[in-house]
Design brief:
It is a single chain. The protein has 2 domains: 154 residues, NAD(P)-binding Rossmann-like Domain (Rossmann fold), CATH 3.40.50.720; 88 residues, ProC C-terminal domain-like fold, CATH 1.10.3730. The chain is globular. Strands 3-2-1-4-5-6-7-8 form an 8-stranded mixed sheet, sandwiched between helices. It has 11 helices and 8 strands. With 275 residues, the protein is an alpha/beta fold. It starts with a strand and ends with a helix. The protein binds NADP nicotinamide-adenine-dinucleotide phosphate.
Length: 275
């Protein structure tokens, strides 16, 4: 199997590295293109065997599965380039939440998947959200998910829930890192603990909590109950946070969804604008 990547920015390069490091793909199975070709050349230096394509068309001609790792605004341009040569037997995987499967199906004759990765895939962890067009047969889905399993837990979601699932899975690392940073900053400010020590303790804590919530079989409520005893220090902290954080996460969800609606409209207009 040959796997192509159009766009090797942040997410494209994370996926390539994760697939190689996990053993899902040998570098020789990968071909990639990027608007600024030096980015692919750097990846090929790091992982000898990765083919540097000089055009997006070259990627499509040489791949069974093509990942589109570009921003929404670039989709129309890239699709206009590749749609004349892409075959119904090939699979295009978009990693962009605001580009709908129907947009891609209307433009190209191939099989379409939408897979939303997460920065956590770089350490072969976290989820990938999976959505499929009806053109994807069970064996196509199995082939793609068996790749994704090497770097993540592939989780099938409804396309109408893309935004909230991406908030939890892909934006989540940034949101949780923000909360952690605030906790660390307060620890330093209030007690003078060295930043390095506070950061390493907080990071180990987050890793351990993640393990409790996944392989440990606990849910978030149980973790809270197991750590806090009535009237104890943790219980006091939780009581304060309950009051202070009222509505914060609802506001967060409203904001991400409002921005998503904007992005959807922009993409819709790109795909409906006459050439
Ligand atoms: N970042 C995340 O955690 C995350 C998670 C899930 C999904 N996503 C989605 O992934 C997509 C890409 O995000 P990103 O963070 O990887 O963006 P990025 O770092 O800006 O990467 C986009 C890449 O696409 C390249 N590109 C642009 N136009 C091109 C063209 N016509 N042909 C070939 N390559 C082209 C750019 O090349 P240049 O080097 O010339 O700029 C750039 O390297 C976005 O839609 C985002 O929503 C991101």
């Amino acid at each position: 199997m040959r796997v192509g990547f159009i766009g090797t920015g942040s997410m494209g390069s994370i996926l390539i590295e994760a697939f190689i490091q996990s053993g899902a793909l040998a570098p020789q199975q990968i071909i990639a293109s990027n608007r600024t070709v030096s980015k692919v050349e750097r990846l090929a230096e790091q992982y000898p065997g990765v083919s540097v394509a000089r055009s997006n068309i070259e990627v499509v001609l040489d791949s069974d599965i093509v990942f589109l790792c570009i921003k929404p605004v670039e989709f129309k341009k890239v699709i206009d380039e590749i749609r004349k040569i892409i075959l119904p037997t090939q699979t295009v995987v978009s990693i962009t939440s605001s580009v709908l499967i129907k947009h891609l199906e209307n433009q190209m004759p191939c099989k379409i998947a939408k897979v939303i990765p997460s920065i956590t895939n770089l350490v072969l962890s976290g989820a990938t959200l999976c959505m499929y067009s009806e053109r994807m047969q069970p064996e196509d889905i199995e082939e793609l998910e068996s790749l994704l399993t090497h770097i993540s837990a592939p989780i099938r979601v409804e396309e109408e829930h893309t935004r909230i699932c991406s908030d939890l899975s892909s934006c989540g690392p940034a949101f949780m890192a923000f909360v952690l940073q605030k906790f660390i900053d307060a620890a330093i400010e209030e007690t003078g603990i060295p930043a390095e020590k506070a950061t390493s303790l907080a990071s180990e804590m987050l890793l351990g909590t993640g393990k409790l919530l996944t392989s440990g079989g606990l849910d978030p409520t149980i973790v809270q109950n197991r750590v806090s005893v009535p009237g104890g220090i943790t219980a006091e902290g939780l009581r304060m946070m309950e009051g202070e954080l009222i509505g914060v996460f609802n506001k967060l969800v409203h904001i991400t969804h409002a921005k998503y609606e904007e992005d959807l409209e922009k993409v819709e207009s790109l795909f409906t604008t006459k050439k």
